[in-house]
Design goal:
The protein is α/β, with parallel strands linked by helices. It has 15 helices and 20 strands. Helix 1 (2-11) packs parallel to helix 2 (24-32), helix 5 (99-112) packs across helix 9 and helix 9 (264-279) runs antiparallel to helix 10. The longest helix has 16 residues, at 264-279.
Length: 447
C-alpha cells in the first residue's frame, strides 16, 4: 500500500491514509506530500473520492464503515493497483518466492537499458530508497504481482515472470490444483513474453501451455533457453554465465555476470530479470550492467550487523523452499556455525505446510522455532511452531532443533548458544525481524 501511495502522489493525485502504527514507510509517504495518520478514525476520510483497503484491514474498520455510509467507492488493493497498471505497459513478476528480488532486479535492468520504467515492488531497494517510482518518460511499469488472493490475475500484464509455484495460500485457493490453475491463467493471459524457471517443477509445467507470446525458460537445466553455468558462490556475492539457446549473442553466451548478493536462488532471480529485460529490448551488456547495480532489497539476506564476532542476517523467507535456499546461500559463506531462528507465518499456512519443513533446515547447526506470527489470523487448536520442531526431529533424529515459543525465549536461549564466528540467521515474515537489533543491543552472548 505504501508503494502504491508513493506512485499515486508522483502521478499527481491527492493521497491520504492511515495505519495502526507509525513507521519509516509512513514517514516517507508524509515527506512525499501524502496526508498520513496514525490510528484509524472516520474523520480521516475527508473529501476522498476513493477509499482503498489492504487485505489486512477488516470490514468493520471505522473508516471503511464510514466510506460505505457515504456511498464512496471502496476498492481492494488489487483494484487500485490494476488502475495504475492500466496507465502503462505492465511487466508483472509473480511466484511463491523470489518475486520481490526479481522485480527489483528487472526494474534496474530496464533502467540500465534506457527504458525509464516505473515500479511498484514490495520491498525497499538498496540504493534506491524505496520500491516505488513513477517515471513519466517511460512506457513500462514493473509490478510485483501478489498471488496470495488471486488478484494477480486482475493486472492486465503484457509480460510476465514466474519464479516458482509451490503450494501456498491454500486457505484461499482451496486446493493446490486451483492455485496452479491460477498461475496457468496468469501466464496464458499475457500477450507478451513469459519467463519461466525450468528448475522449479511448478513453473516449468507452465511452459507446456500454448500461449500467445513466447515462453522463455531459464535455470541450471540443460534444457533451459537461458542455461546458468560457471557458478561461483561467495559469502556476500555470486558470479555466473549464461548460455543462450538460439540467441544472437556472440559465442552464444553472456557473462560473467557479477552479483552483489549471494546464493544460487539469487542467480536464478537475476537470470529471470536478464531474460525479460532482453526480451523487452535491453541489450545484454546493458542488462548485465543493470544487474551489477543491484545491492539487495530490505529483509532479503540483509546483513543487520555484527557484535562480539557474531554476524546477524535477516531474511523474509517463510516457505520451505525459501528457507532451504537461504540456508544454502548462508552455507556458502563459510561461517563457523549457522544458528537459525525461524518464525512461522500464519496459522493457516503452518497447518497446511508444517510437514514440508522437515528437511528445510538442512545446513543449520542450531535451529530455534518460535510460535506463529498470526498476521491477523485467529489461533487454530493444536497449530503451533512446535509442529515444525516435531517434523524436523522426525526427519533427522540428531538435528539440534529447539522450541522457543516467544521472541523473549529466543533471545534468552541465543545468549547462551551464540559464540564468535557464528552467523545468526533470522527467518520469517513477522516481527522476528526485530531480533537482530535486540541481540546486538543486549550485550555479549553468554553474559
Amino acid at each position: 500500500m505504501n508503494a502504491i501511495g508513493s506512485v499515486l502522489v508522483a502521478m499527481g493525485h491527492h493521497v491520504s491514509g492511515s495505519d495502526s502504527a507509525d513507521s519509516p514507510a509512513l514517514q516517507r509517504l508524509r515527506q512525499l506530500g501524502a496526508e498520513t495518520h496514525v490510528g484509524h478514525d472516520l474523520n480521516w476520510i475527508g473529501a476522498a473520492d476513493v477509499v482503498a483497503r489492504s487485505t489486512a484491514i477488516p470490514a468493520d474498520n471505522v473508516e471503511l464503515v464510514e466510506a460505505e455510509r457515504r456511498g464512496l467507492r471502496v476498492w481492494r488493493r488489487s483494484e487500485l493497483l490494476a488502475a495504475v497498471c492500466a496507465q502503462r505497459r505492465t511487466a508483472a513478476v509473480s511466484g511463491t518466492h523470489g518475486k520481490t528480488t526479481t522485480s527489483a532486479m528487472l526494474a534496474l535492468v530496464l533502467r540500465a537499458g534506457g527504458l525509464n520504467p516505473s515500479m511498484i515492488v514490495g520491498g525497499d531497494i538498496v540504493g534506491v530508497g524505496s520500491g516505488a517510482g513513477w517515471d513519466p518518460l517511460g512506457e513500462w511499469l514493473v509490478v510485483e504481482a501478489d498471488e496470495s488472493d488471486g488478484t494477480f490475475l486482475e493486472l492486465g500484464a503484457e509480460a510476465v515472470v514466474v519464479t516458482s509455484v509451490e503450494p501456498d495460500h491454500l486457505d484461499f485457493y482451496g486446493s493446490e490444483g486451483a492455485m496452479r490453475a491460477a498461475f496457468a491463467r496468469f501466464v496464458g493471459d499475457a500477450p507478451g513474453p513469459a519467463v519461466l524457471c525450468l528448475d522449479d517443477r511448478g513453473a516449468a509445467a507452465l511452459a507446456e501451455f500454448h500461449r500467445p507470446g513466447p515462453s522463455i525458460t531459464y535455470g541450471v537445466s540443460d534444457s533451459a533457453d537461458l542455461r546458468i553455468s560457471d557458478v561461483v558462490l561467495g559469502r556476500a556475492d555470486a558470479r555466473f554465465s549464461l548460455s543462450v539457446k538460439g540467441g544472437s549473442v556472440e559465442g552464444g553466451s553472456v557473462g560473467p555476470v557479477v552479483l552483489s548478493v549471494p546464493g544460487l536462488h539469487n542467480i536464478r532471480n537475476a537470470t529471470a530479470a536478464l531474460a525479460l529485460g532482453n526480451a523487452l529490448g535491453v541489450a545484454w551488456d546493458a542488462a548485465v550492467a543493470g544487474i551489477g547495480s543491484y545491492r539487495g532489497v530490505a529483509r532479503r539476506f540483509e546483513v543487520r550487523g555484527e557484535r562480539d564476532g557474531v554476524t546477524y542476517i535477516d531474511d523474509y523467507g517463510h516457505l520451505p523452499a525459501e528457507v532451504s535456499a537461504t540456508l544454502a546461500a548462508a552455507h556458502a559463506g563459510g561461517w563457523e556455525r549457522i544458528v537459525t531462528v525461524f518464525q512461522p507465518h500464519r496459522y493457516s499456512r503452518t497447518e497446511a505446510l508444517w510437514r514440508d519443513f522437515a528437511r528445510a533446515f538442512t545446513g543449520s547447526d542450531v535451529t530455534f522455532v518460535t510460535d506463529i506470527y498470526p498476521a491477523g489470523e485467529r489461533p487454530r487448536p493444536g497449530i503451533t511452531g512446535e509442529l515444525i520442531v516435531r517434523a524436523v526431529r522426525a526427519a533427522d533424529s540428531v538435528a539440534d532443533v529447539r522450541y522457543a515459543p516467544t521472541l523473549d525465549d529466543a533471545v534468552a536461549q541465543l545468549r547462551q548458544v551464540l559464540r564468535p564466528g557464528d552467523l545468526c540467521l533470522t527467518l520469517g515474515a513477522g516481527d522476528v525481524t526485530t531480533l537482530p537489533g535486540r541481540m546486538m543491543a543486549a550485550g555479549s552472548p553468554g553474559d
